[in-house]
Amino acid sequence: MRARRTLIALVLVTAVVPAVAGPAQAQVTSTVRLRVESARTGEPVTSYKFVVTKDDTGDPTQARAAGCMPGNGSDPATSYPSTCDWPSTHTFTGGSGGADNLITQGTQAELSETEGLQLPDGKYLISVVADGFKIDGGWVSVPAPDPGLVKVGLQPDPLPLAQVKAVVFEDNATNGQFDPGIERGLEGWVGHIADVLGEVSTDWYGNPLCTEYDAAHHPIEGTGGECKSNAQGELVIPNLGSNRYSLSVVPPDGQTWIQTTSLEGGHDWDIWAEEGHKGFDPELIVNGAPIPESQFGYVKPTQLDAAHSGNATIAGRVVSVKSYLPPAGGDTFEGPVSRPWISVTDLLDNDTLVYAAQGNADGTFTVPGLKPGDYQVAYWDYDQNLLLQLTNVQVADGQTANVGDLALSHWFSEVHGSVFFDTNKNGRRDAGESGLQGQPVVLKSRDNAVVDAGSKSATTNAQGNWTLKQVYPYGYWTILEVYNDRFYTTGVTYQTDNQPAATTVLGSGVDVATLNQDGLNTRIDIGVQPYARGTNGGIVGTVVYNETRNELDPRLAATEVYEPGIPDLTVNLYQPVTGPDGEYVIGADGSYQLGRQLGTYTSETFERPTDCQARDAGGTPVNLLFAAPATGGHACVESPLMGNQVQTGFAAVNGNYGFTTVWQYDAAGNLIRDAGGDPVEAPMPKGDYLVKVEVPDDAWGRSKYNLTREEDVNVFDGDDYEPQIPPPPCAGKLHTVDVAGLGTDGPDATQNPTFADAGGSPYEGEQRPLCDVKLVTVSDMRSTAPGFHFFTDVPQPGRLFGAVVEDLALGTDPKEFYYGEKAGIPNAPIGIYDFTGRLVHTINADPNGFFEVLLPSTRTFNCPLPAGPCPNVFRLVGNDPGVPGHPNPNYNPAYRTMASQWQIWPGVTLLADVALLPTAPVVEFPGTQTTHPPRCLLPDATPELFAVSTPYVNGSGSFTINGQGFGATAGQVLLDGTQISVTSWGERTIAASVPAGAPPGPHRLRIVRSDGREARNTLTFHVRGGTYTPSVIEVGPGRAHTKIQQGLEAAAAATQALLVVYPNTPSQFAPLGDYFEDVVVHSPVKLQGVGPGGVRPDGSSVAGSIINGLGFTSTNAVQWSTLVEGIKASPGWSGNQQISEGQVVYVVARDGQFTSGYKASIDGFTIQGGDELGLEGTWQTPFYPVQGGGIYVNGYARNLQITNNVIRSNGGAYGGAVRLGTPGIGSNHNDGVRIGYNRILHNGGSNLAGGVALFNGADGYEIDHNEICGNFSAEYGGGISHYGLSGATGPANSIHHNLIWANASYDEGGGIMLAGEAPPAVPVPPVSPGSGPVNVYANTIQSNLAEDDGGGLRLLQAGNWPVNVYDDVIANNVSAHEGGGIALHDATGVRVYNTTVTKNISTSTAATSDGNPVPAGLSTGANSVQLQGTLPPGAPAFSEPLLFNDIVHDNRSGTWDGAVAKLTGLGLPGDTTPVNVWDLGAADLSGKLSPTNTLLTKDHAAYVNAEPSNVVGQDPKVRQPYDTIVNPLVWRGAPQFVQSVIVSLDQPAQVAGDYHLQPRVNGSPALDAGTTGKAGVVAPAFDIDDQPRPVGLYDLGADEDATDAVAPLMTNLAAVPATVPVGITVVVGALVSDAVTGNTKIVAAEWFTGADPGRGRGTAMKAVDGSYNTATELITGTVATKGWPKGARTLYARAKDANGNWTAVKTTTITIR
């Protein structure tokens, strides 16, 4: 679950003050003015109320050196952390603070555009309400830019209602999550929702939940009362107000189901519903449609059936653990989990659940009678206080697989203890001391409201014991309150789990601060004694911020659990004045006359505890690098790594006050003072007292708070009840109850129209005393606790405190607050949006990833809910890029932009967290614990094209190329293989010219340096003329169109269009000329950029064609929706009709619209900023799943060419960079799509894919010559994910000549994933249709990481389709489970030949691993029952690949010991255990592999059949082997979660290992050791570098030694144009080189058609430069087509070197139309 910083942190201003040249500075002012307007129309709102609150949130921008470094002094007041104002470090009071923070309240008369308020320097929030509008606010820092105007937009009523949605499903895979399309829904389950106080029974209109309404909105009789799931398991509860709801579901009567899913522990699911909330998961879709956000999975108790029965057994024990510092080795055994639930799913039978039952009371379990096979065991506790976990188990016939202790971690903290009669008053519970039964124990926040999540309260049992089982790990101090008016506290004894000895604190406080972390426990025993006769506990109460006023008599005002205390108010104690008649004297105003003052108290403000010591699991002190000293009175930092802590002393809590003594007076009535001038006090005697709260005036003479009176009721149902002990009577002055609009109104009638409409007060017109003074009776042997209730006309803001964390990675730096936890993301910007998608405010996280913000709360108090109010709900967008023109400078493209909703209550502090997914994996610098995304650098001196002056010419013309790395010496510029003239050549600029007569059409522009290095991605250059005359439409400054979408609409009207996009006007925030658009391509246009743009190392830059999706929801969503809905309506598109948003480029097509005759293309751009945002759409538009990503090709976009782009920093639900189609809807008909010559960098995907996603029906796709680096998937395929059936007919799919490097997946397939789509959820699931045929060749697949199987290449349910893997280097990849290089499952048609699989690692650290070694180079295993049933009799029972001519060498398999968090067997630094090489095999012993002509590290006799042709135990002698280092990181909160991080220098992939064979003279055993083929599969004719392999002299692996290939090489043979009318002359050309073979001159070349006339007898071709005089030549020839018949004809060409060696014959095709 991101937002950015802009301009001034925590300031929302109305305009940007332009920069002024010279030393002049912008004018500032301390006078603040206010404009209130409709957020929808911009019209001014002229009648309103406001409250100004001091914003005391922390400063995330404070420099670390300026007070935020530990050890900067010994005085607690002047040293860290007191000197650090970061949100993570400073002390905050809670809520909106106290009276000191409330600056003023008023109306438009006091603050407007013309009336200003002069404020002291500081930060402020102005909250505003107006009739007919929702509350909102604006932030300002003083001094502010002159004229100090703050704009506040208010959303007008009526507001849209929300709904919650859930899916109830059978968790057949039993993994605690919903697997869409695989697991079936459950019908007839009843949903229940609750708010903070209890179950909700009615909808917004007051009718039973799920009442249905007719068109006139009348309730339909017979509906409502129960909300049930439908046949698909979907449950909908509509017509709700904004709130945080807790949803739970109940099965139909008589059915037994066990819940497996949990949001954050427990059975319920929290839902934050803002106005208009639709209840969908923002990213997941099923069959193209969104699914509900709340997901309830269940299993039925299940016993083995006959099909899964046998003679094998799985046994073990489930235990719980506690986790401490340090993360490595910090886990401690807690004890067995009583009666755990155990489920077993058959991994070879489509993950079918075969067993589910409870274990024993001692945590042990036994599952006997299983058939042999591979299983996944899930284990969890029924109450779901512990995290469900999984492990994979292989069990053989007749054997028992004992998995040992299976550890579960805690979701929550547990706080428990006792309240006991402390007979000896020592504060410790001694033997024989009995407990106090029935005593409430309450957990509160520091603002004095009850905590809003987890366990909130408990009541002691007969032994006085109490337990808060599910204490939410807030990460900040909470307050444990134990108050009883008949008992006083003698002392408190506490001990955390890892505290060596208990600590006792003597004293009589009732509040103790506790810091609680997940998985850790604390015991707190509270000793009490009854008040002795003649003593009492005095007066102890709270000044309450009274937001919900539903009692008609304010004397009976109750404090709701969500109402905070008010700090900083003066509370005075007086003696009543007794008259001669013995009665208390009443003043002229009707109040009780105040006598002697007997005391004064300032209502409390929370103070952070001091002197906290972090400890490891054994109790040894750990001095954290970010913590303050544990002695000397330094404040305690609030970090998870501090563990559980308890305050040594008693807590001050906001709003509390107390009097247990009274001032003493002498006989003359003078106050007696001590030597220091303080009043002398004595214990308070029983009797009557007057307690008065003084409400201060603000600087303008207006009262800061309003006292709750009879007129101020804002909730109108319910009754007043007289409590058992009546509260003290109100004793303030009399006032006449006067609600405006009822009876005769006086001049000061209270405006409360809603109350008046409801009938008003029963006391209307009566004289009633105010309750700012109360007559309090102190009785013997008890205390009394009167509360005072105040409010403001505009509710005070609430506070959110939380962190931005990386959801799938751990903090690696010991200096971080989140070391060993989910990593905090420093300085991340957070955008705060309302329900319409309007940006309200922007804040930033601090260097620890924490943030803090005050937000407008709510004034919707009369909701049909148990609690009454509907809190405000805001959307927090983490890593928010900002809006066009005002981007957030701290936006981090290495992370996704994701959102979450959070509620705001007046004056209350609530916890929020924003969890982000990365768009890129991380690597670690050697010798440090600092991680960073791979930078994906190009090799030095690689030429880079940034932009051309024009990407087309009309027949001929000149153009300029701008970039870098071209070199000082002129090289070559080519169109395809044809060299064109260069008029000037420089390191950064080239001027070139297309000559007249150049073949018309699109050509690949190539730039080759003089040393032969070639630019990787350039662009397509178009020569218009002849038969290639597309209409040119131009976009850019001064062009016909200024927006890309305008050009696309014009292109849609043309028959053939070339849409050229020039750079936009550079600006301060878009220096490379970005277009901030999300564009829709709905015609077969060639969308052509001029290049990606770029920045050189010296800071100079070149503008490019950049399409930037940042800011979509805030600026473009409504117009985009209108456009797309219009296209959908007419002319429409074929295929998936579900509209998705958030992607930068959206391609939709009609069947037959995109053809091969004029191939649509997207070429020459940078495409960035697409993201799913974690939103469920925008309120103003229809609901669209926010899918995000760079390019999303919906369907039927046949032959689309996506080439020569830089696609970077996009995040998508299903693939981040390029997505072809949608899973689960059948064929998407995206046939013949090519993705070539792109740089695909740092993109992230949430589901099924990371960089490139290919779904069903991408038949014949080609992915070639791309650099795919630094992409990340939260599921499958970090680099490329082919998921579903493609290529069942027609040409095979191909992935070739790509550099796939440094990608990662959180699940399977770090580099490439080839998978069939999972079969549907039916009782007898069919076999997956498989993947279709794929050729994977000539790729470098290196340094990728999978947190499960298949670090480099993973094949899963690919079926029996042929998958050819050849000429690839698969090296240095890492898997956390099987197959660091390659992993196979249900993939029986795989052929791996002439491939180098080396230096890959398997760590066995995955959650599903048992920690034991597994095959690291190539791993396979048994086939599923479903797939095996489709194979012929006698077929192998496992996925046995065809293997020959390979190098499979030095692939290392680790052993993971979770108990001590140690990884061995990989040769890592400091590991003295032998390196464990396991190149290949089936770990489950389901069969032996049969490689031939393969170089292996050792024979692997148990897993590999012996074969004489293999080369065993010899070094292959590659040029530069590279050993990968991994660093396993353990999450403190869940030690089963182990993240592997590759430790690598920040360098290009080519530097991290070179796996070409050494020169022949060095004698590699791989030389000439290959065979021509095997089982009908022929060895490739060329190697990874396209060098020919001489027949009969095949080398092993991907590389063919150059000295083998004595013949020269011909490449890039092409005919231009390739399709012509008869009689047109065609130009053919090619590149010929002998530089890496014989290194002699090229002397001749020829072409021919038809039968081969013999070498030297074809039609001669010429050298382009005029003579054959070098070892590398560009050659050309002309072909006359006069008399040729219509149709295709093959043209053959070859060339000869000076030694008489001819190249192999190459072919191309010329078609006569």
Automatic annotation (TrEMBL):
Gene3D superfamilies: Carboxypeptidase-like, regulatory domain (2.60.40.1120), Immunoglobulins (2.60.40.10), Single-stranded right-handed beta-helix, Pectin lyase-like (2.160.20.10)
Record has Kinase as a keyword: no
EC number: 3.2.1.1
Enzyme kind, highest EC tier: hydrolase
Record's subcellular location: Cell projection
Catalyzed reactions: Endohydrolysis of (1->4)-alpha-D-glucosidic linkages in polysaccharides containing three or more (1->4)-alpha-linked D-glucose units
Keywords (A to Z) from UniProt: Calcium, Cell projection, Signal
Protein name, UniProt field: alpha-amylase
Organism: Nonomuraea insulae
